[in-house]
Design goal:
Structural class of chain A: alpha/beta
Number of helices of chain B: 14
Strand order of the largest sheet of chain B: 1-2
Distance between the termini of chain A: 42 Å
Helix content of chain A: 40-55%
Helix content of chain B: over 70%
Largest sheet of chain A: 5 strands, mixed
Oligomer: heterodimer
Strand order of the largest sheet of chain A: 2-1-3-12-6
């Protein structure tokens, strides 16, 4: 038991030292746009995922259009980029173009420290600004403090994601439940399942699903102003009132009514997804990131999706961003590559493979299910309905939401106590960001 | 050899310490120094750290989660040091003194290897394995249902009242093999005549355990207690694999708390303060152990 244990004190110190040392060698931009013979490109999408396939094709097109340029592609792990991006970007080892997580704590933070190239001019001259709807642009732009929604362009998203209800058609049919169109019908459907001793809604308290459902319930009573206040700090959020109070109260009520299992506090998102794939759960509320996997792996029953009823606002956002490190020596090549990923031929591959392209030509997508997925996303974006995710506002808020969700599930705290925890972490975090 | 000659030859040996000293400075001293410096700053991990003096430490002293994490560390000491050492002592003694004699050394060795098996498993694998067993629909609850105790089935890792005891249980399971192996090796060097003489004098197993086994293997007991205490104070892997510090910080330990501050909350300065506090605590505990050990040895020599 002695050898394999992570000793964080030393590890952290080493990391910190590396960060200090790396900070010393940052930002040599003399060679920028020199147009050297290589494009260094990193992303972390799986080879078989819709994005992985589409980006492979984009690399192919890039090579054909830039015959003298060598593409040095490396597939990284998400955590590798997530935890080391600042070190990498501050060193001379940075790639020319890289996939990176969107949000204040990631792309926003790096942009505020001058580590990402300002893409505003390119976005305007290449028409990316017109291709992306306003709610998709929110995650692409960051102000001087790294807060998303305004300021300069620091990333380009070219796919989207949103959260919906996945349902098992076979179980719905077996228990005589119709696809709900209203919130009342949804609760009625869940009552029917509970009466037949089936837990209707899959849940995973140890990871994001609980926080996402709480936020969606809050969104059903919210407007765009709330989203702007909560995510962009336009005005203070009162955690003792609706819509967040409604979100937490209703979540707790759903647990007490048996819609959500009281024994799901320790489960992870993977457990929730695999239970749905195994045909054990009638419904789960989760993101489009499951879509391709469900399509590939669920063979035993028919499944479908519907948007959470009676709400204009849905969890979702642009996908991850293409960013260009300020230290890139081949920025023009990087912009050319990003431009290729926005072309219809690449966007259509995304749509055909179960992804959610930002500029889809629905007539070119043959699969009916994929068409529905993209059409729903279009409906949300056209109505300016993307409300992002509950953990985005402040760094570390994810853990606070997970802890709160677990407490609501296992009944160890009241909703008021949970909301007090949410409020404290949120207020402290926003204050930190605003004070720089 | 004159004193001068002795000094000259001793000076020659210093060169042998050089590689170790360089490695210590590069791998331990400098990063630890950098960590202490960072603990006095406010830093998100990007850009320049801002010096804020002892603010992180003041904040640390008022942080309930930090104190809670140290309370959980004490639980880890119980689970990884006290219980395994006591059980390990009894098991090793039984295997050596009873099983080994009656059923042969091969049987004792086989059982020793069985107890040691969890130590061979990577800790994250063990964590995931136990995570499966303790899931709401896992084998543990299935077993309770099968024997008619379905009413006791529970979300063991999802309830703050049961999560920490379950993590402790897993750690006892993981940890037991280590003292068993060390103590059995220690018992090999005990003169068998002592046991025989005691037996002839009519001493039973417990009397022999008390009068011979315990005093004879005291040095190894110190080693086990020291290494396991350090391991318990810095435990991270099982917490990460089993509960990620949840539910609601019920299983958060200092190393996970530091990791969270570093990588999730981007509070590098604060995380460094936690890491520094943890390191100092481990150094103090280690020095205390070593002091007690040397005192005991001196007393025995007298």
């Amino acid at each position: 038991m002695r050898s394999a244990r992570g000793f964080v004190a030393v590890g952290a110190a080493l990391t910190a030292l590396a960060l200090v040392l790396a900070g010393c060698g940052s930002g040599d931009d003399k060679g920028a746009d020199a147009g050297g013979g290589a494009l260094k490109l990193w992303h972390y999408e799986g080879a078989d995922s819709a994005m992985g396939v589409a980006w492979d094709k984009a690399i192919e097109v890039f090579k054909a259009e830039h015959p003298g340029v060598q593409v040095q592609f490396e597939r990284k792990a998400f955590e590798q980029i997530q935890q080391n991006a600042s070190m990498i970007l501050a060193s001379d080892q940075a790639p020319d173009v890289m996939e990176y997580n969107k949000g204040n704590a990631t792309a926003g933070l790096l942009s505020s420290k001058g580590l990402l190239a300002d893409l505003t001019e390119e976005a305007e001259s290449r028409g990316w600004d017109k291709a992306l709807s306003p709610s998709l642009q929110t995650t692409a732009k960051y102000d001087d403090k790294g807060v998303m929604g305004s300021g300069k362009w620091f990333g380009i998203p070219n796919y989207g994601e949103y959260v919906m209800v996945y349902y098992n058609k076979a179980l719905f049919k077996q228990h005589g439940v119709a696809v709900p169109k209203t919130l009342a019908e949804l609760t009625q459907a869940m009552d029917t399942f509970v009466a037949k001793k089936v837990t209707p809604l899959g849940m995973a308290g140890a990871e994001y699903p609980a926080g996402q459902l709480y936020y969606q319930l809050a969104l059903s009573k919210a407007d765009r102003k709330f989203v702007d206040d909560y995510q962009l700090y336009k005005s203070p959020v009162d955690f003792t009132k609706d819509p967040v109070k409604y979100g937490a109260d209703t979540f707790k009520e759903w647990v007490s009514k048996g819609y959500i299992s009281k024994q799901s506090a320790s489960l992870k998102a993977e457990d929730m997804g695999t239970a749905f794939m195994a045909g054990k759960t009638p419904m789960i509320f989760s993101g489009s990131w499951w879509y391709g996997r469900f399509a590939a792996e669920i063979k035993k029953f028919e499944w479908g999706t519907f948007l959470f009823p009676e709400t204009k606002l849905h969890l979702g956002s642009s996908g991850n961003l293409w960013v260009v490190p300020e230290s890139s020596k081949n920025k023009k090549l990087a912009y050319d590559f990003i431009d290729i990923t926005m072309r219809p031929e690449i966007q259509n591959i995304l749509g055909e493979k179960g992804g959610v392209p930002v500029r889809a030509d629905l007539s070119k997508v043959t699969d009916a299910k994929n068409k529905e997925l993209i059409a729903n996303f279009d409906t949300i974006t056209k109505a300016d309905g993307l409300a992002f995710y509950p953990d985005w506002p402040v760094p570390g808020y994810y853990d606070v939401l997970v802890a709160g969700g677990q407490s609501l599930i296992n009944g160890s705290k009241t909703t008021d106590q949970v909301l007090t925890d949410f409020a404290k972490a949120y207020t402290d975090g926003v204050q930190e960001i605003e004070n720089g | 050899m004159s004193a001068r000659q002795l000094g000259r030859s001793a000076a020659g040996f210093w060169w042998y310490l050089l590689p170790g000293a360089v490695a210590f400075i590069a791998i331990v001293a400098v990063p630890f120094g950098a960590n202490i410096y960072l603990s006095l700053t406010k830093w998100s991990g990007v850009g320049s750290p801002r010096f804020i003096g002892a603010d992180n430490y003041t904040r640390l002293l008022q942080d309930d989660v930090f104190w809670g994490s140290f309370r959980n560390s004490l639980a880890m000491v119980v689970a990884m040091v006290i219980v395994p050492t006591v059980i390990g002592l009894l098991l090793a003694s039984t295997l050596f003194d009873v099983i080994g004699r009656r059923f042969g050394n091969k049987t004792a060795s086989f059982l020793r290897a069985t107890f040691y098996l969890p130590q061979v498993l990577p800790v994250v694998v063990a964590g995931i394995l136990w995570g499966w067993l303790l899931r709401p629909d896992g084998a543990f609850n299935a077993l309770l249902n099968a024997i008619g105790l379905g009413g006791l089935s529970h979300d063991w890792l999802g309830d703050p009242r049961t999560a920490l005891p379950m993590v402790m249980l897993v750690m006892i399971w993981v940890q037991i093999g280590y003292p068993v192996v060390i103590f059995m090796a220690a018992l090999q060097r005990v003169d068998p005549d002592l046991y025989e003489a005691a037996e002839i004098d009519g001493a039973g197993w417990f009397r022999r355990f008390q009068a011979i086994t315990l005093p004879q293997i005291r040095p190894e007991t110190f080693v086990v207690a020291l290494t396991c205490t350090i391991a318990a104070l810095k435990v991270f892997g099982p917490i990460w694999a089993l509960t990620r510090g949840g539910p609601n910080n019920a299983t958060t330990v200092p190393s996970y708390f530091a990791y969270n501050a570093f990588f999730n909350k981007l509070q590098v300065g604060y995380g460094a303060a936690v890491a520094t506090a943890l390191t100092l605590l481990i150094v103090i505990v280690s020095l205390a152990f070593l002091r007690i050990q040397s005192r005991t040895e001196s007393a025995e020599e007298r």
